Every structure is written in C-alpha cells, then in structure tokens.
C-alpha cells in the first residue's frame, strides 16, 4: 500500500491534551489513515525529525467574510497554522440580504470592522439572498482553508424589520420571523448565530448597529431554534445577565468575548471568579486575546496626533514620501508644535504611556517592559514622545511600529483568566480592523510566549486549546485531533523557533486598499484536508479547504 503523504518521525501532539509521543502520520484521501510506525511509503514524504506534528489550529473569531472573496488563501491566519476559520462573528454578516440592501450591509461592515466598503462591494459576487446562498458563493471560491459561518443578528434583523431594525423593538411576530430566518440559515449550513451588543459599533450614520439594544427576549426566541439544532450562539458586548438568559433559554452552547478588565491583578481575579460562576452548569465558553491588543501606530500606519500637519502627513501617497516629509525641518517643526498643543490622540481613554515600541528586529517584541513605552523612551533621550516617534520612523525608513496596549494590557492579569477552563485563546479578528490592529498571529504567540518562553502552558495543553476545544465549540466532530479517520488538517512545526514576524502594511485589497499582514517562522508544513496548503511559509497553490456546513 502507498499513502498519499507520510509525515515521518515527528513528536505528535494529538490535540487531546495527552502526552506527546514520537510517530509517523500517514494520510490518504484527505483523512488520517494511520499513526504509529508506518512501514509503507508515501507518494510524498515530509521529514518531521525534530519537529512537532499537531492538528490544524481552529480560529473561532475571524471576520474573513469579505476578504475570502479576493483572498481565498485567508492570509494571514493560514501562515500561522490555522486550517479552519469561523466567519460571521459579532452579529455582522452579508446574509441574509435583499439586493437593495447590500450597500447597507457593506457600510455596516466598514464602520464596525474597518473593512473598506468598495473592497466589499467589488470583491464579492453578491449572488445570494439567504445565508445558505452566501455559503454556496464561498464554496465556488475554493478556499485554501476550511470555512464555517455564523449568521449575524444585524443582517437578520434588517432583513425582517427594515429600517425599524436600527432603533425599535421587534413585535412578537417579528421575533418569530427572525427565529425562522435563523433556523433556515442553520438548516442551509450556518453553524450558528451571532449577536452584538457593543454600543460603539456604529452604522455609517452614527447609530448603533441593529440588535444592539434588542430586548433579550428576542435573543431567547432565537436561542430556542438554535440550541435544538445543536448549533452555536455567539455574543459580544453582552452583560452577564443577558449571557445567562441566552444560555438558559434552550440549554445550548454559547461563545462570548471576555477580558481582564485592565492591569489590576485583583480585578482580573474577580473577573475569573465571576466568569466561572456565570458559566457553572452551562455550556458557555469565553475567548480572549493572547496578549495586549490595540491600535498600531507608525509612519506606515496610524498616526498618534490630530492636527493639520499630521493630516497632511497622513495623506501623503507613499511611505517614502512620509519619511522624507518628517526629515524636512520646517514640516517637522509644525508636527511637533501640534503634538505639544494637541497631545496624544486618545483611543477609548488610553494614555500615551500605553504605547509601546515593537522593536526593529525580525520579530515584534509584544512583551517589552515599561522602559519601552513611548514616554519612557522619550525621557531616556530627553525628548518629547512625538519626537521619539518621528525620529524612529525616520531612522528605520518608516518600518518602526508601535502598539497601543488597550485590551488585556497586563500579561500577569491575563494569566488568571487562562487558568480557567472556561477561557480560551483566540480573538485574532483576522479580516477586520485591517489598518488598525494585527492580532491574527495569536496561535503563533501562544506557542512562542505562553509555551516556550514562560512555560505557563504545556505544549499539549496549548494545542488542545487551539484544536480539540474550539472544534467542539463549533460542533466539528471530524477535526481538532490527530487520530485515524479524522480529517487530515495537520501542522508540522518547530516548537523551538516558531514566532511571528513584524507586521507590515501592504496594498493588496481591491482597488489597492491597505491592510496589515503578518507572516511567521517555524512552520514546516500545513495540510488542509490531506493536501499541503503552506510549505516553508509559502502557499503551494493547492486550495483544498471546504465549507463546513452544520450537519445537525
């Protein structure tokens, strides 16, 4: 017998949390055929001596709903070992959608998730009305990784209620109609439903998106059609009372976003206690960022000051133009005068002391100490923080990047959440906030920092939290572990060197729109459904991903 692929002699971490062991992994017809000592040859052989073999990672919080239309490889997550991605989070989706409403849904995705509207409208076929039709359209794109989708509350509400969906409460009949739309979406393949109660998520006209202030009874009505189908409810921005009501309405699975609440260790402990009390007896799971997250600043990215000169700098067409401009003495003086007069451009009240330099090496330093915040760096040089920002931008030809530690700003506080079985790493937000944030390498950071650098997680436990556990949350039974008969979504990686590379801004969206990407090092190969999707950091051109539809 000859197998399609045999991965030889790697350290197998199977996703269950069990101890690693050395073995070969044989693949045939898209599934794992054998694990152990494999005597038979493979048509293709991968030498994994000294490397680790894991299941493909499952990313349960992405917004690749639009990007998949022009980037079926789903970068950057596919560079970080992700083989399955969940779309449709946060209540914002492109279906259901009547033809006359596509501008509204595209505009909503732009203002909520920072995905350019013109890219959305020109980069997708818009050939659907119901959510199943959207999944059909994705299927024709031949995605490079596996894709599953949630149907979003905002789209469902607008589909049923029209303009009234934004600010009015639904009638009993409208609640029933929404529940019916959601049920039909799941029956056509959606793996669940998502909702959003975060008021700062706005429509283009400044009003909060549909569903933000919906009576929780509306969500309970929807939960009562989701849970019996074995599908998932997902929520962001909901308080504990609403989350409990959703979970208790039909005793189903509920996924929601959570955080440390700041840098206070006592507060983090309180939030962990509250999380576990809320989830007790319920199938509820929280996800959180794996490190501090927030805006990226730099000459190639966002600028940290408001003012006429800074706006002119922002509008210059190329990075080389901006580097040259900050080297002009007169213009530099204007920039500094505005920085001193106007201060740091606040983001949710976060001070400039929370802005940290990512360094100028090949790998970003996400865990640098207080000496690397922008204010401390400036003080060490006897200069204003804006001078430090401009100087480093000039000296690195615009490559210097800074990150605002806005969410989960203290890693010691984050440890408390990660000690809970109810809190899992995720929230990379891939496909969203594309010029503002770059967290899509979350899985790689988990391996490099939380496993290798700190030893907080064993490799076996970290892999379990990225594979078997999110697969269970999504309702996937044939992925997430390495075992004979499972689908062959597999990573071969070097656990001793795996790391994120520095983020970089590229202009590869439709119309030349910009976005951040982030590559990785240390991944030898990633298989999707038994075919090599990424080899030594590069896509092979083989796109074997599948649309994973809810199977009931």
Q: Based on the structure given, which CATH architecture of the largest domain is correct?
A: Alpha-Beta Barrel
Radius of gyration computed on alpha carbons: 23 Å
Structure summary, number of beta strands: 24
Please identify the top-level CATH class of the largest domain.
Alpha Beta
Quickly count the helices: 17
The termini sit apart by 36 Å
Task: Write down the overall mean pLDDT.
Answer: 96
Give the DSSP E fraction (strand runs of 2 or more residues).
Answer: 15-25%
How many domain modules? Answer: 2
Please give the largest β-sheet.
9 strands, mixed
- Overall 3D form: globular
Percent helix, as a range, is 25-40%
Please provide a written account of the structure.
This protein is α/β, with parallel strands linked by helices. The chain has two domains: 57-294 and 410-457, Metal-dependent hydrolases (TIM Barrel, Alpha-Beta Barrel), CATH 3.20.20.140; 296-404, no CATH class. The chain has 17 helices and 24 strands. The strands form five sheets. Strands 1, 2, 3, 4, 5, 17, 22, 23 and 24 form a nine-stranded mixed β-sheet that branches. α4 crosses α5 (172-187). The mean pLDDT is 96.
